[in-house]
Design goal:
By secondary structure, the protein is an alpha/beta fold. It folds into two domains: 140 residues, Rossmann fold (3-Layer(aba) Sandwich), CATH 3.40.50; 79 residues, 2-Layer Sandwich (SIR2/SIRT2 'Small Domain'). The protein binds ligand BV8. The site of ligand BV8 has 37 residues, from loops.
């Protein structure tokens, strides 16, 4: 690993699967129970706010019933022990990276435990349901929505992510199907700037062919083994 200094890691729903959180596209996943266009777009929220708020209230409440797994813990260890730059980007809206001890997690698609005011744009840490339209703590309007990036909305901190990808020596994608952009294009962005690329996923993804190396298996096994290779 002598030639590797800066690392960018991207995680997806697969890293939380062994914690009991449904992925999106696996059998029995979230998109089998809800059509994307009915619950994960601004149009869906405008059309049926109660359905969308209920979908996210249920997922926020479920966070109390799950725990981080060995993969989350291994990435927290890497963050503690890696002596050079490391950026952990997650597409996930759960808080399992943080609860495993990761201290600097970039939630490019927002977070269940955050609320966004549609009236004044303020964000707040949030634990409670939003279905009963609580007033915004800043402006008082009953306009709070999940602080989550829906399809058609702009992911958070894209400049920071692209700057890190341009400097990365290694890009690692963990537990994602490579189905959604711009996240699915990060491997190409990193490789175009000379990074080595590694995929750790249960099965081959839509983007596996872009990676220098793709390992198949459960994140709970592959991620601790990879972290041991890096810092052991
Ligand atoms: C944007 C938050 C402009 C919400 C999410 C046509 C072509 C190309 C693009 C588009 C297009 N039409 C529209 C677009 C853009 C669109 C898009 O990509 N659509 C797709 C469907 C084609 N994207 C957007 O709208 C994005 N915004 O483009 O803005 C822009 C662009 C660039 C720069 C600035 C602005 C916004 C998209 C964000 C949507 N919000 N999540 C919520 O959580 O409810 S997306 C959601 O799905 C995830 O966050 C993630 O990003 C995405 C994919 O999910 P995964 O995490 O990968 O999960 P999945 O179930 O799919 O896969 C799980 C994987 O884990 C599997 O591979 C499985 O094998 C593996 N696995 C399972 N178990 C395990 C495991 N691996 C290891 N161990 C295990 N145990």
């Amino acid at each position: 690993m002598a030639d590797i200094r800066s690392i960018v890691i991207l995680t997806g729903a697969g890293i939380s699967a062994e914690s009991g959180i449904d992925t999106f596209r696996d059998a029995g996943g979230l998109w089998e129970k809800h059509r994307v266009e009915d619950v994960a777009t601004p149009e869906a929220f405008a059309r049926n706010p109660a359905l969308v708020q209920g979908f996210y209230d249920a997922r926020r409440a479920a966070l109390a019933t799950v725990e981080p797994n060995a993969a989350h813990e291994a990435l927290a260890r890497l963050e503690r022990e890696w002596p050079h730059e490391l950026l952990l980007v997650t597409q996930n809206v759960d808080d399992l990276h943080e609860r495993a001890g990761a201290s600097s997690v970039l939630h490019m698609h927002g977070a269940l435990r955050s609320a966004l005011c549609g009236a004044c744009g303020q964000r707040f840490p949030w634990e409670e349901p939003l279905s009963d339209a609580p007033p915004c703590s800043a402006c008082g309007a009953p306009a709070l929505r999940p602080d989550v990036v829906w399809f058609g909305e702009v992911p958070y901190q894209m400049d920071r992510i692209f700057a890190a990808l341009a400097k990365a020596d290694l890009f690692v994608s963990i537990g994602t199907s490579g189905a959604v952009y711009p996240a699915a294009g990060f491997v190409n962005e990193a490789a175009a700037h000379g990074a080595r690329t590694l995929e750790l996923n249960l099965e081959r993804s839509e983007g596996s062919h872009w990676f220098d190396e793709s390992r198949q298996g459960r994140a709970g096994e592959l991620v601790p083994a990879w972290v041991e290779e890096m810092v052991g």
